[in-house]
């Protein structure tokens, strides 16, 4: 279980762009990301396995296109119970929500006719901050 890519966006409602690393701030989210704040959806995660299924319809999909902050490999995120604690790199995250409603102008849904994030993406809040980058290990601490 590992991180494949990390991405941010400076404003809401747009695709995120990959960066070398993200800096997580406890109980706030990712420094420089539009979705940071004192709420339950501070950091979003999506499995590359979910993206690969969508690539059949849209082969050009890449990291950040579903507005996920962390693209993962080797973990079925949407089967994790709410409250699961994940250690990602030097950070600790708590799963707070599975899936979400796509916003009205969802670019992927418009192009492909479907979006995987509402079903298979997850949201977390930051319990312990620090940096996360590609190749960092992901560990389930507790469920």
Short description:
The chain is built from three helices and eleven strands.
Radius of gyration: 14 Å
Structural shape: globular
Query: For the largest beta sheet, what order do the strands appear in spatially?
Result: 2-1-6-5-9-8-7-11
Beta strand count? 11
- Structural class by sheet pairing and helices: mainly beta
Order of helices and strands: EEEEEHEEEHHEEE
Largest sheet: 8 strands, mixed
Helical residues, percent = 10-25%
- Give the overall average pLDDT: 91
Strand content range: 35-45%
3D structure, described in words:
The protein is mainly beta. The chain has 3 helices and 11 strands, in the order βββββαβββααβββ. The strands form 2 sheets. An 8-stranded mixed sheet has the order 2-1-6-5-9-8-7-11. A hairpin with a 3-residue loop joins β3 (21-25) and β4 (29-30). The model has no long low-confidence stretch (mean pLDDT 91).
List the defining traits of the structure above.
143 residues, 38% strand, three-stranded antiparallel sheet, 11 strands, eight-stranded mixed sheet
Topology (SSEs and partners):
Blueprint: E1 2-8, E2 17-19, E3 21-25, E4 29-30, E5 43-47, H1 48-55, E6 70-73, E7 85-88, E8 91-98, H2 107-112, H3 117-120, E9 122-128, E10 130-133, E11 138-142
Parallel strand pairs: 5-6
Antiparallel strand pairs: 1-2, 1-6, 3-4, 3-10, 5-9, 7-8, 7-11, 8-9
